[in-house]
Amino acid sequence: DTYDLIVKNADIATSGDRYQADIGIRAGRIVAIAKDLSGEAGEVIDALGRLVTPGGVDGHVHLDQPTSDGAVFSDDFFTGTRSAACGGTTTVIPFAAQQKGHSLQEAVDDYHRRADGKAVIDYAFHLIVSDATHTVTREELPRLIGQGYTSLKIYMTYDDMKLGDRQIIEVLATARQHGAMTMVHAENSDCIGWLTEHLLAAGLAAPSYHGNSRPMVVEREATHRAIALSELVDTPILIVHVSGQEAVEQIHWARGRGLPIYAETCPQYLFLSADDLQPQGDDHAHGMRCICSPPPRDKGNQQVIWNGLANGLFTIVSSDHAPFNYHGPQGKRLAGEQAPFNQVPNGIPGVETRLPLLLSEGVLGGRIDIHRFVELTSTNPARLYGLYPKKGTIAVGSDADLVVWNLFEPGQEQVLSHAMLHSACDYTPYEGQALRCWPALTLSRGRTVWRDGVFTAQAGDGQFQPCLRPREPVTGSALAKWL
Ligand code: URP
Ligand code: ZN
Ligand code: ZN
Ligand code: ZN
């Protein structure tokens, strides 16, 4: 056969183009795109004029990470990547997290063991540098960057992860010299520590006080400091999980100075707010489900984040999938029903709902156009993390990672529920959200991994993707509306 598979009558949308064509796939790659492709094909799937986008690239996912407090992430590399695939994501970039006192190489070896034979879609790794010794910054990091680990995350808070400013500078200098992308978790650790101590001393320990322990100024200050360190060292950074206006203002200010400051936000800052940390009925622990850092803010801040998607401020949208079960002893209630907020594991699930929520409320809701959606969720993460153009677009030569979408007519919206999802996490924070779309079909390197509600991939089908050096992201003006 000329092709293993032809996807006919696709309404193809990339970050730059929109057109109708057939897509010819051989050996996992796109080998032809044309109107009315002819030639023998092992299988033909008629997309019937439906919207087809590049598979999602989720550049911020936590899978099977050991924790310092004994909490256990709900998803391993099988359940986490299964969940991703069913929601239209075909590449995830989880973290290989260094533990203090250990080498980066140990982390890399450990996470390869965790992923190998389990992932159902392709994956790369970011490094988390938590112990920036000279051996790490001068030997290990340069070697690993050269071996395809070209992005790293650093933390300004969390006792087991955080780096001081001097260490951050050392890491940024290495990233500059060797061409890596540095992601920064920007929250001021000492502010959080002081506020937490005083809240707990005053008996204010319920889940909702998590938000009070990390007000916007905590994120604003650290965002500004990260920008300053990036400017000092003269190297780009990406500020992860930006939650609201004051951090957005800092990034906007930095861009005005011509600094290469990139920014990520996540669905939780568009769809959740401080209200979601409140008790529900007699379930006093309910708010634990939405404890993540930075915390969800208020409606005004949600609007600022939407504006930043529309106006080009944000570079990527990732899930920050960090799932802990609500029921059972190893997740959110690790320290019990009445646990003070500072003993609740931070993070929420979202790898499967990222694309459907953003396509529903962003594109079909008229806030961003389809090209900006593809740019934020696929093309830009692929570019920033050195996977483009293998990932992140629909083009001849690219991997055949595609999503064929079902769009639901107005009045035919579906209600998002945990029962639909394929993560091992026992809840979704987005329960009850109206959905205007869901993937009808997800292809990962030409293999069907999700079709008409059925998951069809095998553990181990996913391959490790070594990353090239970062490329500049694209930024559409994105003000035109779709349709
Ligand atoms: O609360 C969060 N976001 N947990 C995941 C780890 C991180 O900081 O991204
Ligand atoms: Zn030094
Ligand atoms: Zn973080
Ligand atoms: Zn994270």
UniProtKB/TrEMBL annotation:
It comes from the Bacteria. Keywords: Hydrolase, Metal-binding. CDD domains: D-HYD (cd01314). SUPFAM superfamilies: Composite domain of metallo-dependent hydrolases, Metallo-dependent hydrolases. Coiled coil: none annotated. One of its GO terms (molecular function) is dihydropyrimidinase activity. Its cofactor is Zn(2+). The keyword Protease does not apply. Its EC number is 3.5.2.2. Residues 51-190, 303-449 form the Amidohydrolase-related domain. It is an enzyme of class 3 (hydrolase). Pfam families: Amidohydro_1. NCBIfam families: D-hydantoinase, PRK13404.1. Belongs to the metallo-dependent hydrolases superfamily. Hydantoinase/dihydropyrimidinase family. This is Dihydropyrimidinase. It comes from Rhodoferax ferrireducens. The lineage of its organism: Bacteria, Pseudomonadati, Pseudomonadota, Betaproteobacteria, Burkholderiales.
